[in-house]
Amino acid sequence: MVELNRRSFIKCSLAATGGILLPNVLPGESLLGPNADASPLPSPAGLSWVEAKYYKKLEHKEIECELCPRKCKVGDRERGYCGCRENQEGVYYTLVHSYACSANVDPIEKKPLFHFLPGTKAFSIATAGCNMNCKFCQNWEISQVRPEQVRNIYLPPEEVAAYAQQSGSKSIAYTYSEPIVFYEYMLDTAIAGRKKGIKSVVITAGYINHDPWMELIREVDAIKVDFKAFTEKFYEDICHAKLKPVMDALLDLSKSGIWYELVYLVVPTLNDDMKNIREMCKWMVGDLGKDVPLHFTRFHPMYLLKNLPPTPVSSLERAREIALEEGMNFVYVGNVPGHLGEHTYCPECRQIVVGRIGYTITQMNLKNGKCKFCQNPIPGVWS
Amino acid sequence: MPPVGKIRKRSKVVIVKSPNVISPSGKVHRTLLSDMVRSGLCKLTSESRAEDAIRHFFSPQDQVGMKVNCLAGKMASTHPQVALICADLLRDSGIKGKNLVIWDRSERELKEVGFPLNFNGGEFRCFGTDSKGVGYSRNLINHMNIGSLLSRVVDEYTDVQLNLPVLKDHNLSGVTCSLKNFFGAIHNPNKYHDYGCDPFIADLNTLPQIRNQQKLVICDALRVQYNGGPSYHPQWAEYFGGIIISDDPVAVDFVGYQIIDKIRAEHNLPDLEKAGRKPKHIFTSADEKHNLGKAKLEQIDLIEIVL
Asked: Is A78 within 8 Å of chain B by CB?
């Protein structure tokens, strides 16, 4: 096994395109510098043992995690559902603070965030773990594993910010797996990035409790939420989670004023009922507003749903039509490069204000956040 | 274990107890423990020699995995002596030491409990799924409600399993014993603790690699954590001084469940059902769909020996 130092790791990662690069193994001990948050606890290489935020201590060394709606009650020496937080002697630790299993420079369009600094790069990091278990997960090799089961690199917040700056990225994206489970690392990195003028964007399923959510919203600049479905059944059967807390998190976003966009992965036979999609759109227009961008994206067979076909493009188009009929202004078709539904159209004059093919910007007809043709303001963070 | 589709009419479970096998300081009387294992096996199989008894379950050409449970540290895990006595017995029955693998999830946990790591054979091998070169299978299992990678110890390094669990109360599943021990064979057990781990434990145990490979259970009930489990709490640890032996893991767990409830009653604690953690997975494992064994007293021949 070849061991690389951090510089080599980043260099290799930055050279990679179009996907996650699992870096080379680096033993945690040799990387932990004098200022690292290392504790004297049993410490397999590459685990951080930084005390977690948002948990409460119960009797007999048990704890209850207050980060996400699962509210895991975790006994001594046990881990929560996410697999990356562990109770030791009644203290709950995140095991992944500063230990990234993936780092890449991506176009912001890949997240996708279409109304946030289009055409810019996002320095993207992830750690192992997730607080859901979606049967269609595209990145299950890192999201559905424990941190010691992947290759990690010690990459503390200040270094993430520095690498983002060096790579010319306008933002740091917390993505690929589920950043809620590396909450403390994400928060510290967002603060470090802000000091250097780098924005932070969160790519999440939004399965989080109110207090940590509000704290996070204050420290980051944009959020993309994967809204999995508009039925409890889908959330329970396919994602092992619940719908209601995600809807609550979206309402929080709506009230907060932060920029956010929504993705709805259309999975054939499971969440492609058009009546239900219409109900969802009505709810969005009524409770979130008509200007929230909504991306209907194409499913590809993956992980535990290899038995289903890819989403027919016609389903995505029909869902988009419904959303537009219900009054949503910015509705996209995703994972279908070259589709006309990738462009941003001015809701007033119907001209293309931002043209895209895949992750590439082909036209930019915005001036000072307004449509160049009719001067209609287009919501988003454009500069 | 009956192969898939074969219905077992009754199951036999042997409990062997000795008040002197473990001292209050936790010291295990190895000779006495060995006598307990040997006599229990003989009673289970109606053989007079333990070497002949163990041949009911294992053949000389087998590569035997001995799955212990080391997650909760030295005081609430399978005692190494139980595994070492079993290894002696298996070797005496004709299985080569290099074909005996004592294993669990991680080296760290095995070492902490006192298992001597050993990759090279000799009297036995002992390593974790996380040991260098081991790891998990590359192919994802998508079986009932389980989506996991399986330890290569089960998939490649061994072909039959001797299950060596420890009997404990569990804050989510009610009881952890034989059936739950195989959560230590998958990469993502944390995903399967919702709903009291039910039906996940039963589903996992119907996986052919586990169902067909598991031949025998020798459960360590020397010290039973009857409340506050699965971690160790000395105030709720009973020096029960027993081992439970059967080829039916469901029956072992059912009997273990009764033992925990009995101890709880003696200490004025509510039974597990009243405490809100009835071990549903034991009954799910016994249902028609899973058919992994018996979870009714009237279907179990329960024999108790005191040495």
From this structure: yes
CB pairs under 8 A between A and B: 60
* Assembly ipTM: 0.90
Contact A218, A257 (CB under 8 A): no
Q: Considering only the beta carbons, identify the residue of B171, B187, B229 that sits closest to A149.
A: B187
Q: Are β-strands A121-126 and A352-357 bridged in parallel, bridged antiparallel, or unpaired?
A: unpaired
| B73 at interface of A, judged by CB pairs closer than 8 A | yes
What confidence category does residue A343 fall into, taking pLDDT thresholds of 50, 70 and 90? very high
pLDDT 10s digits, B231-252: 999 999 999 999 999 999 999 9
Q: Which residues of B touch A62 (CB under 8 A)?
A: 171
CB A346 within 8 A of CB A374: yes
If you search the block for the tokens 């996002």, which residue do you land on?
Answer: A122
CA distances to A307, A314, B135 from A46, rounded to whole Å, are 36, 46, 17
- A17, pLDDT greater than 80: no
A131 in contact with B, Cβ within 8 Å: no
**Contact A133/B171, CB-based, under 8 Å?**
no
Count Cβ neighbours within 10 Å for each residue of A38-75 and write b for 16 or more, e otherwise: beeeebebbbbbbebebbeeeeebbbebbbbbbebbbb
**Residue B174 touches partner A, C-beta closer than 8 Å:** no
The pLDDT tens digits of the residues spanning A275-330 come to 999 999 999 999 999 999 999 999 999 999 999 999 999 999 999 999 999 999 99
Residues in a beta bridge with B175: B169
Residue-wise pLDDT tens digits, A94-134: 999 999 999 999 999 999 999 999 999 999 999 999 999 99
Chain A nearest CA to B72, separation (Å) = 7
Residue of A nearest to B142 (CA): A304
Q: Contact, A172 vs A199, CB < 8 A?
A: yes
CB contact under 8 A, A145 and B171: no
pLDDT of res. A44: 53
Using a 10 angstrom Cβ sphere, with 0-12 exposed, 13-18 middle and 19 or more buried, the burial of residue A383 is: exposed
Residue in A132, A207, A304, A308 to test binding to B, most B beta-carbons within 10 Å? A304
Pair of tokens at residue A102: 């993936």
Q: What CA–CA distance (Å, rounded) separates A236 from A364?
A: 41
Q: Tell me, yes or no, if A77 comes closer than 8 A to chain B by beta carbon.
A: yes
Q: Which residues pair with A288 in a beta bridge?
A: none
Residue range A101-371, CATH number: 3.20.20.70
Q: Which class is domain B11-306? A: alpha beta
Residue B304 C-alpha, separation from nearest chain A C-alpha, in angstroms: 33
Element (H, E) at B89: helix B80-92
What is the average pLDDT value for chain A, to the nearest integer?
A: 90
DSSP label at residue A80: -
A133 contacts on B by Cβ (under 8 Å): 147, 191
pLDDT band at A20; cut points 50, 70, 90: very low
Domain ranges of chain A: 6-94, 101-371
Q: Which of A341, A381, A346 is nearest to A358 (CA)?
A: A341
A62/B171 touch (CB, cutoff 8 Å), yes or no: yes
Q: Per the CB < 8 Å rule, is A60 touching B228? A: yes
